[in-house]
Amino acid sequence: QVHLVESGGGLVQAGGSLRLSCAVSGRTFSRYGVGWFRQAPGKEREFVAAVSWSDGSTYYSDSQKGRFTISRDNAKNTVYLQMNSLKPEDTAVYYCACAARYYSGTARPNEYNYWGQGTQVTVSS
Predict the structure, then answer these.
(1) 20 to 30 Å CA-CA from 110: which of 38, 39, 86, 116?
(2) Angstrom distance (rounded) from CA 124 to CA 5
(3) Does position 65 have pLDDT exceeding 80, yes or no?
(4) How far apart (Å, rounded) are the C-alpha atoms in residues 64 and 90?
């Protein structure tokens, strides 16, 4: 029902910046939200940030707040994750996902209904 495609990942040195994009298409819902998650090898999927499509409100993981910024562009049907001051521990596959019944603070992977394929982010030390 909802399709998401991530792009923008790559290799960057520590301290650098990267902007990820998530193109959203298909049928959506009146109060849905889009979140970013990441998963490093051998670790659990971790919430990064989310945005409400209806009002643009944002919610961040404490560990990323201040370095990462999530935003949406309605005209382009795209959600962005601007990542600054990147650290080696930010290395992971980054996924965008859509929660059909989003509310402020929705941060659990099982609350998101649709997922993109992921984009690799590698931060060298």
Answers:
(1) 86
(2) 25
(3) no
(4) 9
CA 63 – CA 40 distance, rounded (Å)? 15
Q: Which residues contact 14 (CB under 8 A, 6 or more apart)?
A: 86, 87, 88, 123, 124, 125
SS3 content of the chain, % helix, strand, coil (to 5): 5, 50, 40
Residue recorded with tokens 């201040």: 66
Where does the pLDDT of residue 54 fall: very low under 50, low under 70, confident under 90, or very high at 90 and above?
confident
Residue range 80-118, pLDDT digits in tens: 999 999 999 999 999 999 999 888 888 999 999 999 999
Q: Which amino acid is at 93?
A: V
